[in-house]
Design brief:
By secondary structure, this protein is α+β, with helices and mostly antiparallel strands. It has 2 domains: about 80 residues, Nucleotidyltransferase, domain 5 (2-Layer Sandwich); about 120 residues, Jelly Rolls, CATH 2.60.120. About 40% of the residues lie in helices and about 20% in strands. The chain contains 7 helices and 11 strands. The N terminus is likely disordered. Belongs to the ZPR1 family.
Amino acid sequence: MSNETTPSDPAPQTIGKLPGYRFDMGHQETERMVDELEQICKTVKYSAGDAWMTASAAESILCTDLGYEDAAELEDAIRGRFEDFLKALPHIETKIQDDGSASQGKLVFRPKPQLPFAERKMFLKKLTVSTREDLWRVVHKAPCAVIEIPELEFEIGADAKRKIDSLYNLIASAVYNLSMHVSTLGASLSEDHKAKISETVDELNKLLDVDKPWTLLLHDRTGLSEIRPEEGVETTYAGQAEEDPAEENERRQQEALEKAIAEEEGE
């Protein structure tokens, strides 16, 4: 197995070039923060619909729930300002509140409204990765979505939860997982199998050097995934989208809640 499981020179993180470039979305603590933020958004949605929430209020809740002493410690963990972190998340929309309320002038946010299920279509997104800066685009991969790299006949398959990360980290994570697979099951794998995995790891690492352009295909039957920024991304639409299992479960919970409220009001 090759020892070169990471590229020797990380892709440049050019200030101002790509939204979200500075945040390691794959870092365990950052991922935990994204998960907790989603729970906060769900709580707000169930109680107040599509209402906007101030970034400062969410930051305070995160500090309490995740055990940070204060906002400064939280921002140390994400290596940046919390407001910038929110702006980098592709499934979140932000604005400066201007409704004359107590939140006037503050940054507020909410989950980005999704197209109604009936209006969504399956799609294929294609990105030609031609510079190392492209590696710091942020990919929002829906649970049912599949990432394909046709040059290597390699796929990152569907998962139980959505993934939000830089393209660089998605590839680096695949390298790590393949390496751990060999390390864990090495004794039970044939030499031919290990050699093929080693070759794939080496080829994935070469992609991170971007010595030549390569292609990223994002297949999504649910129509929920994104690549940001969108410049240079080609999208081909197909038929009616399928409902994501997590989305279906959330919809049913919401319907049950609305039914319970209606029955209570009718008594």
